[in-house]
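Got a spare moment? Tell me how you read both lines of this record:
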Amino acid sequence: MRRYAARMCGIVGYVGAQSALEMVLAGLRRLPHPDCGSAGVAVLADGGLATARAAGTPDDLAEALDRRPLPTGTTALGHLRRDGRGAPADRDALPRLDDAGRVAVVRDGAIDGWENPREEPAGSGHPLAAGTDTEDAARLLAQEFSSGAGPDEAMHRVCGPLTGRYVLAAVHAEDPDTLVAACRGLPLTVGRGDGEAFLASRPAALGPEALDVTEVLPPPDGGARVVVLRREDDEVRVEITDVAGTVVER
């Protein structure tokens, strides 16, 4: 069974009118990263997903982006990986994509629920190819999206059979103004600003633009919370639901 130390990574997401890449990079830089192994980002732009990953710190990622810029978008997801196992490498960085390159996923913590990469989570009905937990989650989310599930429903279906202490966050090229995340056993932080919203694994990632901050705590019964940030016109709506899909906060 694959296990990872909880809270070894950092997650930052943004939905709004500003440059999502700049906002996410700023959030990643606010996280402590003395032992950072790699950093990465996914931006929704021009009807697709653009990603960049680099070994090292967020500054190393920024240098890679200076050499090969990504298109400008208003939704993005970033990841900071702390990993002392071996030398840092670009290939270890997140986000990870599904096979079609339409879903990007980042993860913090440890996921249980499948015994090896070739077995699906109990009850999911979806066989998995060999891969990491994060790649498997991206494939499952892509399958749920292709079946017509919305972002919150897809995340609930994927996380339902999974256990452990983790945060998953994802974006989909078919829904460019939406970011979805789930937390089980670990908290999430949501920040609301003027026509924008932020998602982070730690409050330290949020900047002064986050005027209203909410800590999303997983329920004590071991269930999950799903958070959706969705841009509608000039506003970004935040919705938090429980494992049954019931809205617990807007």
Residues 144 and 150 are 8 Å apart (CA to CA). The domain at 9-249 is CATH 3.60.20.10 (Glutamine Phosphoribosylpyrophosphate, subunit 1, domain 1). The chain has a mean pLDDT of 84.
